[in-house]
Amino acid sequence: MFINKLELKNFRNYNELTINFNSSKVLFVGKNAQGKTNLLEAIYYLSTLDSLRAKNDNELIKWNQEYCSIKAEIKKFDIDTDLEIYINPPNRKKLKVNGLNKNKSSDFISNISTVCFTTNDLLLLRGAPDDRRKWLDNAIMQIYPAYQERLSKYNKIRIQKNNYLKNLKGNIQADTQMLDIWNEQLSLTGSNITFIRLSFLYELQKIAKVKHNKIAKDENLLIKYNSTILDDISSEKKFEHPIEYILEMFKQKLEQKKQEEIIRAQSVIGPHRDDVSYFINEIEARKFASQGQQRTIVLSLKLSELELIKEKINTNAILLLDDVLAELDDYRQNYLLDAIGEETQTIITSVDTLHFKEQYLKDVEIFEIKDNNVKLL
Ligand SMILES: Nc1ncnc2c1ncn2[C@@H]1O[C@H](COP(=O)(O)OP(=O)(O)O)[C@@H](O)[C@H]1O
Ligand SMILES: [Mg+2]
């Protein structure tokens, strides 16, 4: 798929902006703080309804403005689709596909898939569990758009359950009939999320192992899902657990944790507390891998995401590379650029063009980003 056009209004530092893309290789060049990442953030938002970095949609709106909009024209399987997001908090954001309102986020995000690779991702292994969950969830959405709705349903139930727990004020003698109802709902949606995450990681791992091997041939990469529901975190086997088993374990664990949850007034187990870890030759990468090894893992993961999406949805996702080339050594830079197929639209931000071989720059469309404006060079 391709993005042919991006139109922003009051988005971040841009008043009104229209960019037409005419190439599968796009480069945004500009000094720091000019708004390069903001452009990738807008495209990424179309595919996840989630910001790359803002915690709150308000941050996306240009200062002193009330709303912002992101519009795009996407070509997928030779069909053009117009997408439009209108953000005007506290109102619910409006989503339109070809001019028609969409209430379900999956009906919107199913029209565009991206893989985003930023300098922040290079810290994925060392970063907070929250970042790793966000990476995982947003990657899954690119393949199963309905996952977005399941995730928000789970989070809504979890928040309601937490409110209920707070009202109990730590009283373990209280009648917990209502808590049982929340737990029932939480385990139903939560086991589904766990199951989808496990299946995704299982498939991703198969590809990532091979990719990692191509860069580091003596290293065996293993991805583990650290579940708060399933005990055997070190086994690859749990990737095969049927959903009924996960549900059963979830219910049992919730029953065991009941008192603790009342006392702490929070949901202490479930996919919102799970994490992902990576091992090289059975040694945990977060603690023991060198910076280079960690970068190889992240690079393998991102390229695998791209390949898995292609395998599942039969078209290439749009690849967004934010400042990341400058952070990689020559060998990994070349590996990355060579691994991207011609059919993959790749949008790269960079301070300059120094990191690119002449061969690569030949068919690239270069835009200069300066003073809140974008100019085709
Ligand atoms: N909501 C906003 N309204 C106006 N300007 C913003 C907003 N959010 C960020 N900016 C501005 O955007 C710029 C940063 O853009 P960014 O895309 O991160 O730059 P780059 O990637 O080119 O370094 C900063 O100058 C910042 O002040
Ligand atoms: Mg940037």
Brief sketch in words of this structure:
This protein has 377 residues and is an alpha/beta fold. It has helices at 36-48, 105-109, 129-141, 147-168, 177-215, 243-256, 258-264, 285-288, 291-313, 330-339, 358-361, and strands at 2-9, 16-20, 25-29, 68-76, 79-87, 94-97, 100-102, 114-118, 221-226, 275-280, 283-284, 318-322, 346-350, 365-370, 373-376.
Portion of residues in helices? Answer: 40-55%
From the 3D coordinates, which CATH architecture of the largest domain would you assign? 3-Layer(aba) Sandwich
Instruction: Look up the CATH topology of the largest domain.
Output: Rossmann fold
Give the CATH level 1 class of the largest domain.
Alpha Beta
Strand content: 15-25%
Strand arrangement within the widest β-sheet reads 2-1-4-5-6-7
> How many separate domains make up the residues?
2
Compute the CA-based radius of gyration: 22 Å
Q: Tell how many strands the DSSP assignment holds.
A: 15
Figure out the total of helices.
Answer: 11
Q: Care to describe what's here?
A:
A hairpin with a 2-residue loop joins strand 10 and strand 11 (283-284). The chain has 377 residues and is of the alpha/beta class. The radius of gyration is 22 Å and the shape is globular. The longest helix has 39 residues, at 177-215. It has eleven helices and 15 strands. The protein has helices spanning 36-48, 105-109, 129-141, 147-168, 177-215, 243-256, 258-264, 285-288, 291-313, 330-339, 358-361, and strands at residues 2-9, 16-20, 25-29, 68-76, 79-87, 94-97, 100-102, 114-118, 221-226, 275-280, 283-284, 318-322, 346-350, 365-370, 373-376. The protein folds into two domains: 1-113 and 315-377, P-loop containing nucleotide triphosphate hydrolases (Rossmann fold, 3-Layer(aba) Sandwich); 142-312, RecF/RecN/SMC, N-terminal domain (Glutathione S-transferase Yfyf (Class Pi), Chain A, domain 2). The chain has a six-stranded antiparallel sheet with strand order 2-1-4-5-6-7. Strands 8-12-13-3-14-15 form a six-stranded mixed sheet, with helices on both faces. A three-stranded antiparallel sheet has the order 9-10-11. Adenosine-5'-diphosphate (ADP) binds next to helix 1.
